[in-house]
Amino acid sequence: MASCLKPSSPTMSRTIEFFYDLMSPYSHLANWRLPGVAKRSAAVVVPRPVSLPELLVLSGNQHPAELESKRDYMRRDLDALGRYYGIPMEWPEQWPVNSSRAMAALALLEGGAQQELANELFSAIWDRGENIADPDCLLALLGDSLWQQSDSDEARQRLNENTREAYERGAFGVPSCFAGERLFFGNERLFLLQMHLNG
């Protein structure tokens, strides 16, 4: 696996910064749709892992799982969207899943190495219904070296820095995509992101 390097802060106008948390099913959909948006817009996707619970605290927002009616609606909505996009959606038994250590691991990586691992972890949760909060499950997905590093102060600090940056730039949840300093929130706003990039 690639060495652990701190992600850069891209400034290119044709860059899509993708702030996400694995626990978010809408981030799962956006993760698989963004490569198409980037291709049609001649842009590059830069994944930026954050802690959704911490972002919600910072912004004063509420997790949808806290509202029973919204939680029930989300399941129907996401099942329908998954079928529409052709993206597998298998709700894990444990949701919201505690993704904090997995997100810390992702924060240690950059570029293709991070995206490859994010793809595998999104699939584990939302395609295969695995519980990444289970240490044995996450260890098998990360490998021993990254598993050990994911519990370090450095990993948590990088994740916290990403989360704080997202909040300071106006994000209040995930998925949040930035083109420059223009925020596009939610999987359902990706068409507006593409329109913006294509001018």
UniProtKB/TrEMBL annotation:
Which GO MF terms are attached to this record? 2-hydroxychromene-2-carboxylate isomerase activity; glutathione peroxidase activity; glutathione transferase activity
* Gene3D superfamilies linked: Glutaredoxin
Pfam families assigned? DSBA
EC no. given is 5.99.1.4
Coiled coil regions, renumbered to chain = none
| Catalytic residue positions | S24 (nucleophile)
- CDD domains (alphabetical): DsbA_HCCA_Iso
GO biological-process terms attached to the record: glutathione metabolic process; naphthalene catabolic process
The UniProt family comment states: Belongs to the GST superfamily. NadH family.
Q: What is this protein called?
A: 2-hydroxychromene-2-carboxylate isomerase
User: Which species expresses this protein natively?
Assistant: Motiliproteus coralliicola
